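#dry-run=false #mode=assembly
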Amino acid sequence: MSEIIPIIGGGPAGTASAMNLLREGFSPVIIEADTFPRFHIGESLTTECVDGLNRLGLAQQLKKLSAPRKKGVRIFSKYPENSFYVGAGDAWQVERSKFDHMMLNEAIQRGAKHIVGRVDSIQKNKNLWNISIQTVKGEKKLESRFVIDASGQKRFSQKQGLFGGIKDGIYAHQIALFGHFEGVKHQPMDMHDTLIFHRENHAWAWMIPLSETVTSIGLVLPIEDFKKTGLTMDDFLDQNILTFSEPLMSRIQGTKRLEKVRAASNYSFTMDEYCREGLFCVGDSHRFIDPIFSFGVQFSVIEAEYAAKAILACSQTDYSKWSPIHEGYMQTTTQAQDVVQDILAYFWKHPWGFANMAHQRHADEFLEIFAGRIYEKTPRKGLLSIRKTLYEA
Ligand code: FAD
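#status=ok
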């Protein structure tokens, strides 16, 4: 019988981990606290994310979601001459409730076990992890050499004290308020792009068409700017998208919000260590930078590939030799996240320089980065130049 690997969380990190582990001959057990389908934010995918999904043989399943293709990201500054477009390759904009449900069903169909329940403790006993799960039928226990923590922003194993503390990310203390709308006046190409509208002070909005009729709209800004108004989330979002910027306003006159406004805040964090003794954090459970350029689901899906390979490598060697494999997993995944962090820092600090790089000086490299090709070991010229400006100036 193949080795059981518990996976805490059934979002994209958990289900992609399960499908990759099945390929390597393991028996993943996905433990998910929520009942699917459930709402989740994070609707714009990158090309590299979709390539990772295609490598899992999910091309047909993605097509069946009938979601709009995503060709690029259009960025509207408050100065029209500083607005620009970056091709993203060929990806999708998806309703996460449907996408995540498809991923979970697919993992189960391929052989993953699914437990509806909440993992409430994890402990190391000699070389084994002991996991306790609360289900409606009572407590369940699992014991295994390897565990994947894919618990997202809940950061299960970090909160259990298995890793050090977290550090605020650069974009901590932000709030995102968002909802699905109908009646948006789409302009040509809107259906195939993620639209970003930005102002100074890390204030920006997104518009992501999810179908002919439904569009996701969100506003992101420092939490204090929201709190000091005293407005409800519904009123704040409705009023502020109407005055945020001309290109946004022109699209949303007469739109109707389809649901109550939801919010996410304080989501930007990082932690130094996120893999030890067979326990691997994948996706949001160990780091989240910022959603503006839509890399979150990609990190989950691609890190799942690296984690499965690392687990296979560990399983083929002695416990005493696992440490460098863990280090390798953390190095590769941190390096890629750092690319996104630096690109973002440059975007906010030097928006004009960013537009120039994306359109002229390093257009090809930016195209690759926006498509999510960020796992190269040696940084290319554009990235080196950005880092020089950010860290040596
Ligand atoms: P999640 O999708 O959060 O899944 C974690 C799962 O674990 C959940 O289902 C939860 O119920 C379960 N869980 C947690 N704890 C337990 C437990 N103890 N026991 C059992 N189950 C548990 N990303 C993009 O790619 N594109 C975007 O456009 C985008 N926009 C975003 C906008 C905002 C405002 C924010 C905040 C994020 C955005 N993201 C975006 C990021 C994206 O949402 C996440 O990166 C992605 O969902 C991470 O996937 P995950 O599987 O790691 O975590």
